[in-house]
Amino acid sequence: MKSKPILETRGLGFSYVDGTQALVDVDLSIPAGKKIAFLGPNGAGKTTLFLHFNGLIRPDRGKVYFAGQEVRYDHASLLELRKKVGVVFQDPETQLFSASVRQEISFGPLNLGLPREAVLQRVHKAMQDTGILELQDRPTHFLSYGQKKRVAIADILAMQPEVLICDEPTAWLDVKHAVQIMDLLTEINGEGVTVIISTHDVDLAYSWADYIFIMKSGRVIGEATPECIFYNRRLLEEAELQRPWLLDLYEELQRKGWVSAGLPPKNIRDFLRSIKDKEPA
Amino acid sequence: MLKIDQYAYINRLAHVHPLEKMVLALVTMIICLVFSSPATSLIVILSMAGMVIWLARIPASFFLKLMLAPVAFLLLSVLTVAFVWVKDPAGLLWGFNVGCYTVGVTSRGLITAGALLLKSLGAVACLYFLSLTTPMVDILSVLKALRMPPLFIELMSLVYRFIFVLLDTADKIYTSQASRWGYATLKTSYSSLGQLVSNLFTKASRNYQMLYTTLTSRCYTGELNVLESSHVISRRNILLIILFEAALLLASIHLAGFLTPFAGGAGS
What we know:
The complex is a heterodimer.
Chain A: E1 5-15, E2 21-31, E3 35-39, H1 46-53, E4 61-66, E5 69-70, H2 75-84, E6 85-88, H3 92-95, H4 101-111, H5 116-129, H6 145-157, E7 163-167, H7 175-190, E8 194-199, H8 202-208, E9 211-216, E10 219-224, H9 226-229, H10 233-239, H11 245-255, H12 268-276
Parallel strand pairs in A: 3-8, 3-9, 6-7, 7-8
Antiparallel strand pairs in A: 1-2, 1-4, 4-5, 9-10
Chain B: H1 2-10, H2 18-34, H3 38-55, H4 60-68, H5 71-82, E1 83-86, E2 94-98, E3 101-105, H6 107-133, H7 136-145, H8 150-178, H9 186-216, H10 235-267
Antiparallel strand pairs in B: 1-3, 2-3
Helix pairs in contact in B: 2-6, 2-10, 3-6, 3-10, 5-6, 6-10, 7-8, 8-9
């Protein structure tokens, strides 16, 4: 990864009050402007790590860096960090505090001290980008789970962060809405925002991410591009992760000579294309 | 109560400026309370019903059901006004003896009770009008514009939002308990209900901690700043409200003239 790191940690360690070691010696460097996925089972420390990126938890050991600057924990520095790094939490029910969608989204930008006009503009754009303009006059408690998830993302988008972190963005969503959310995250990334997600869905991480970190028991045990990471069978075994089915299928068909050689496909469309190319004329 | 909330967002008057509706409801209620005449109360009940059913397009049956809800409670309290204890049964319309006393009703007591019942229903109708036509969010924005303390308003808005989260959580716990025979017998019902309540509190407190975290991550510094909704005050509506209140006031003064002896008696 050539691009400059936007978030880094050095020797990061954190334990909860009950003694659970949530993070152990985490050293990582997240490239700017990419789509990043953290893969790992529940309890691997993904959420705890994300809370560190936003300064919501102070590490017991080690340091966090944003754009090369060490994160400091005084009031002003924290606000500055939270302006640049936004977190969409897993359960929108605990994030949405207002009964009005428009008011909910206006909370972040108003806290940044922007004038009313600018806030209105940002709220409008965030609703437009997340496709919830028609929900603006509806009360939060009338919304479906998928809609609440979109509002939660709009909450953060309206703050126009440089890094958007989504904890389990597809949790509890049906396939159709999960795909929509991931497409939305891709679009947001297209505007230059570094997007970081956590997931335990290997297929999702494989086809969506530019770069993958694998976590287990509070450690980062592997990192690479999706093309590389899923060829590292020992790592997958250690992380107790399955391979993406697309990759397994592709390899098998390649062995049989039914698909063209080259880079493995990232999604079904690429995969089907690689088969079609082999069809006899 | 949840249905009232739903109608507040979808009724025909939902987009009218909340201040107009609040003024209408409150002034009407004050008139209804000040003039203790049954005629005024009746006019108030009927006009509020008319506005809820014709202007806001809320089903008449639903409004009727809402109006009946406090009736049982009101009747009970009004009964204590209608009945009197006396030693001398003269002047009673009807009564029975308890020891050397007589418990009974006088015509004056009955009228007082009827007036009280109508007056209460009139005030209730005004409040129903407000809560059926005005979303809570709008009421809060008016309170904010009226310079109520921010702490009070933030508390109200959080309570309002999390009533629904709490109800939803309670509903889920109840379903999961019921599906495992949690409410099969009276005994298990009691213990299940106890667990439901205590679980609800733990969950609520965890939710609260999480909420604080999520707010902090959006640069929360102790004040819940949000954009206020931008309703426009309609001059036409203001004029109509003034006309309505003036007519109500004049009619009340006029009617009170005829009913002074009774109204005066009810008041003192």
